[in-house]
Amino acid sequence: MSEIESSTPQARGPADHSVREQIVEAAGEHFSHYGYEKTTVSDLAKSIGFSKAYIYKFFDSKQAIGEAICARTLSAIIAAVEEAMAGAPTPTEKFRRMFKTLVSTGVSLFFNDRKLYDIAAYSAGEGWPSARAYCERIRQILTEVVREGRESGEFERKTPLDETVHAIDLVMQPYVNPLLLQYNLDVADEAPVQLSNLVLRSLAP
Amino acid sequence: MSEIESSTPQARGPADHSVREQIVEAAGEHFSHYGYEKTTVSDLAKSIGFSKAYIYKFFDSKQAIGEAICARTLSAIIAAVEEAMAGAPTPTEKFRRMFKTLVSTGVSLFFNDRKLYDIAAYSAGEGWPSARAYCERIRQILTEVVREGRESGEFERKTPLDETVHAIDLVMQPYVNPLLLQYNLDVADEAPVQLSNLVLRSLAP
DNA sequence: CGAGTGACTATTATCCGTATTAGTCACTAA
DNA sequence: TTAGTGACTAATACGGATAATAGTCACTCG
């Protein structure tokens, strides 16, 4: 369910080829260490003991490798969010944890793995499929929470579901989208709480 | 009241000197035409018939001139907002118009006077006094609207005023701050409506 | 046939010397 | 004293030659 890769069929060779995994593995290391720009496709090839040309049997382009790494990084954030939400008793609490974890994980990525963060930000700016899928997944999770809250009578039901979800999505976007989050780091610690409060007030029946 | 310049005392010569106005006038033209980077201080000097050195009798630096132009640009946005709000019958409507005008004026600046927009965005990114004052002014206006709405019984009164205002400010920021707005142009037409609705729901008594 | 590659090209990045430019200051003329 | 400037410097931008890189393809080897 949280497999973002499934929506990005930019592979060339057989999907479950061991070499493909080796490439992704090496790319993860190199991109994280030296950044996307500074690592060459030859570097990746050398580090797994093949020629550069062979890489292109598995990936269309260097960007495609970048997308794979990006998808992986964003999947980790989604996983953290799902884990945080797991034990929440109410939709209200689920929403709070969702927002909070989304932001704190993003911020932590920024400070602890800046090179990977930059790829994610670039990806969001360019509208790569990996970033689109990430946003879409967040929207799904949000929709689920709101629907649940409506069913339990915790949230109001007058406003059309789509509209509610979309508006909340707009509120979260600046802290969820890596491209935008980096400009909001100064309020990233308080924003989830303050905005969760506001959103939840707007959801009151 | 909407004089942003008053808070930025980076002037050197007498404040109401005609040459100072000529400089600002010329800078407005040149920056708008060729951009901040591409216009040299000598260009400004030449266009008003003085030497470059004389400019520095009135401004500390080229950046100070940029700030003056930025302040001027942002003042125009504030003025547009105040005008739009003037005829609004209720605080609810005032808020809607405020948000809507803030965004539409910003977007229009982006598309019709890109060079000036870029200065404003840069200014916001660097935290120049002109940009700070702009944000502060918006917050003031917002505070006034919320207070008025509370007094008239249109808005809820349980949440602390500061908290309410701050949260709404966070919601508007991505569309008000020129640095951020440029990344949100794709939703700039619907966001004010959708977010106004959400905010107003959260303000319901 | 399939796994894997060396050698090639067109495009993009990187230097590095040169030219501009922001900013200062001692100075003049009225 | 006030209004205004030419000449100077240190830092920065520019441009063009050069090097590095993404991506391809015909090819070999088992």
Give a description of the structure.
Two copies of one chain form a homodimer. Chain A has 205 residues and is an all-alpha fold. In chain A, 71% of the residues lie in helices and 0% in strands. Chain A contains ten helices and no strands. Chain A is elongated, with a radius of gyration of 19 Å. Chain A starts with 17 loop residues before the first helix and ends with a helix. At the A-B interface, helix 8 and helix 10 of A face helix 8 and helix 10 of B. Chain B binds a DNA duplex (30 and 30 nucleotides) through residues 19, 37, 40-42, 50-54, 56-57, 61-62.
CATH class of the largest domain in chain A, please? Answer: Mainly Alpha
Q: Please give the oligomerization state of what you see.
A: homodimer
How much β-strand is present in the residues of chain A? Answer: under 5%
* Architecture per CATH nomenclature, i.e. the level-2 architecture of the largest domain in chain A: Orthogonal Bundle
The overall number of domains of chain A is 2
The end-to-end distance of chain A, rounded to whole angstroms, is: 31 Å
> What number is the mean pLDDT of chain A?
91
Helix content of chain A: over 70%
The total strand number of chain A stands at 0
- How would you sum up the major sheet of chain A? none
Give a short summary of the structure.
2 copies of one chain form a homodimer. With 205 residues, chain A is mainly alpha-helical.
